[in-house]
Specification:
- About 45% of the residues lie in helices and about 10% in strands.
- The protein has a 4-stranded parallel sheet with strand order 3-2-1-4, with helices on both faces.
- The protein starts with a strand and ends with a helix.
């Protein structure tokens, strides 16, 4: 019987950078698109459409967590003045991991991981610390073995939507210097 892993994906380009390692480790895996942090339903749909394209191209099942930005915002808004990579991000990571943990349990997956660690802009060490709270969390650092570079190459091949900011209104503000 093969091991089953649910991979939280923040976006299709990051998910691309995880595929090789999961296959090398002989996981049977599925994608879990959970992104209530995204600053608009339109951005959510753009990223989800790219995830659908990737899932079809790679023959991977895709699950989608319902978009609930209002609840996500309630949990993070008081830290809106924090810079990108500040304390707000830890709350966001915990949100995504907790949602994925619940889904992995409900769908009887043996483990779960996150594509967040493929990005050089996300601190894997912090994500692993948060992940320790979840029994089935498997700490993959997808940055290793050129995961980010390979992911970007594959995303370009598939012509996937490649966003220019993390996703929340706070990261948008910081990235584009909006007041």
């Amino acid at each position: 019987m093969s091991k089953r892993l649910l991979l939280h994906i923040c976006c299709a380009p990051c998910a691309c950078g995880c595929l090789e390692q999961l296959r090398l480790d002989d996981w049977e895996f599925a994608f879990y698109f959970s992104n209530s942090n995204l600053n608009s339903a339109e951005e959510f749909q753009c990223r989800y459409a790219a995830a659908e394209t990737l899932a079809a191209a790679e023959n991977v099942h895709l699950y989608c967590d319902p978009y609930d930005h209002a609840t996500w915002l309630e949990r993070t808004a008081e830290l809106g003045a924090e810079p990108e990579r500040g304390r707000r991000c830890a709350i966001c990571f915990e949100w995504s991991l907790s949602r994925t943990a619940l889904a992995a349990e409900a769908m009887n997956f043996d483990a779960f991981a996150t594509s967040l660690t493929v990005s050089p802009h996300k601190p894997s060490k912090l994500i692993f610390e948060i992940g320790k709270a979840f029994e089935k969390f498997t700490p993959y650092d997808f940055k290793k073995r050129d995961g980010f570079l390979k992911g970007n190459r594959r995303a370009k091949e598939l012509e996937l939507y490649r966003q220019q900011y993390c996703g929340c209104e706070f990261s948008y503000r910081d990235r584009f210097n909006q007041a």
